[in-house]
């Protein structure tokens, strides 16, 4: 992918962080991204959804790490040192996304986002807001609000 | 201005608390002379502050209240139940007025009118029905000042020896219409003039605050022939009928610049409705002017008397609390955010300290005893530091309880029942956030207790109980948590009715087998309300379920126990602090976990244990003649499949809030240590069986086990386990 696509500067321009999971490219609005870290071991949570890898310690803060691959139905990631955690801040919560690799930071025009194809997978429609086409590559824009672990019933 | 306003309302809270404490003392007959003085000072200070912000209704009401207290103080009234009840109503209305003023709301005019009238009536009766609001009211007029009243709007004369100008103007007699007057006596020291101040300007400023009458006392002025310029001989008596919103502190402010350069007294009087005492005769200008020396002795003779009286009042009433010599703990107000920041920092410090200690231990030989000694000291210090910091946020629950005493009174009145609130352990300290967030749930619980818990008076008598119901609010520290319990001596939960209602609402099925405690706890189910008619108090359908969720949000638990005919007790157990605890570090299925030490009773090695098998792989441990359920922690948390035997396990005997015990089977016990609690909800959500997390010395996260959820309760299964299966269902969706 190229450095900095040359686009007219309009209000619709945003920066995105693109990353890969398996063969697919995804992206997040950079506004949500706090930092990018290498893989660190996490603490397993009991009764957690399968896509929640565990809790990590980020300088004293305790936050959950989500296996994005698992969350998107692309299979479980066996974390290794080559994996990357994107620390994001979404809906007042901090969360780590476990991904294969971070590719680039690109400026895009939000008008260029094409709608998600109407496929039957509920995950696709729920988690992908749309796609950007960048030099032959399809980059899927993640719906950050939907991707967060959903609050489960907490009866006592 | 808004800062000052906020500060005033914060002060009001404190003052109301003092007042409430005093009222309780009066009611319990544990009061002494100082009690009423303190109450008087509180009301007076509220009035003073209210004046500064022009809160007329508050001033008026506080004034009437203060008068009654003053009569009590001067023994014109005796404390009896009627008076106490009146003062309780007065207190309630006063708090309402303060709240309304704080929110910038206006209460309906009718609110508190009855109380106000009653307070006034009480004062009137106490003062022989003369209509005197306050005995000092007559002071001004009784004293034989030749009160030469001046229109301050006129030129007072710029020169210091201005009495000539001051005299000879038409006298305005203070209109006696029940309004508040301030009598200010002012005598300048020579230094005041030396510094170029001009009393006339001060008086003029005062004149802008209302109708002002000025009288000069020239008795000390030496005859012209012996007149020297040095001593400042003239003193003035100023009577101010203040405009709205002017209070003593406003008056004091005027004289602030000449503080220490004059002798100043300010006293407050109330003129009665009808002018009684003869007004000081408006002295003919010519006469006074002609014979100043003759008139002089009179004020001179009387002035000291007046001063004594005003001094007395100052001593009695305090000066808006500002000059009160009453010993009090000195406090400062600090923004809560600053405290929280400090608490967080100290939390980080404790973690760093633990990390340091751990890496020290990993060094080949920690031969350097000086280092380990220093580290030991650091540990002690950081522990003390943490405790002290946490103590900043701790507050006695007294304030909270006192608010509840009002709820009891109000709800009893509305429900037509008589009841009293007994408070135990008000000094128990709890985190400020916790007390604040307990207000709503407790209010609701108390309304419920009065409305549903207590029987009607005739039923009580029939049941052989005293007509007056008792509601008991109790706070205590119990094994590292705060336990607040609310009990009533009412009829207890009507289980038949509750069950019937629950079935009607489809909450349970008729064939369900429910224990008494299960039925009692149906009250916490959403949408449950047993009142036949929806009363004004409760029964809005948002009942105990809201209470429960609010308590749970605080990391607390709520539990209801009821005994038919004897009453109901609701117990809330809350974490003491939201930050640190002692824990036992254990290992299960390769994970490090922490079990809170408070719940821990004993640890057992397998050899000592006597394990028995039951159905479905359930196992029991016989200890001291009793059989405890064994919970395999690894299995309960879903870390592994059930173990075949516990031969290699350590057993931790834990005891929950309810007093029930169970044995936790774990792989190994590492050590006991202090851990900093990190909530899971902030970035994630609550996890069944887990109370919170902490960070270990090596930077790894360890989860803290919620021991209460690890204790199976009869008929309830293991909540931790059960929720696990619920979760699994939820998660299978997307």
Describe the structure.
The complex is a heterodimer of chains A (156) and B (734). Chain A is mainly beta. Chain A has a single domain (13-143), classed as OB fold (Dihydrolipoamide Acetyltransferase, E2P) (Beta Barrel). Chain A has helices at 68-71, 122-127, 144-147; strands spanning 13-21, 24-29, 33-38, 52-58, 61-67, 84-90, 93-99, 101-109, 114-115, 128-134, 137-142. A six-stranded mixed sheet of chain A has the order 8-1-2-11-10-9. With 734 residues, chain B is α+β, with helices and mostly antiparallel strands. Chain B folds into five domains: 2-129, Four Helix Bundle (Hemerythrin (Met), subunit A) (Up-down Bundle); 138-317, no CATH class; 336-386; 397-575, Heat Shock Protein 90 (2-Layer Sandwich), CATH 3.30.565.10; 580-732, SH3 Domains (SH3 type barrels, Roll). In chain B, helix 3 (56-73) packs antiparallel against helix 4 (81-102), helix 3 packs parallel to helix 5 and helix 16 runs parallel beside helix 17 (432-453). Chain B is flat and about 115 Å long. Chain B starts with a helix and ends with a helix. The chains are: A mainly beta (156), B alpha+beta (734). The interface between A and B is large, with 34 and 41 residues.
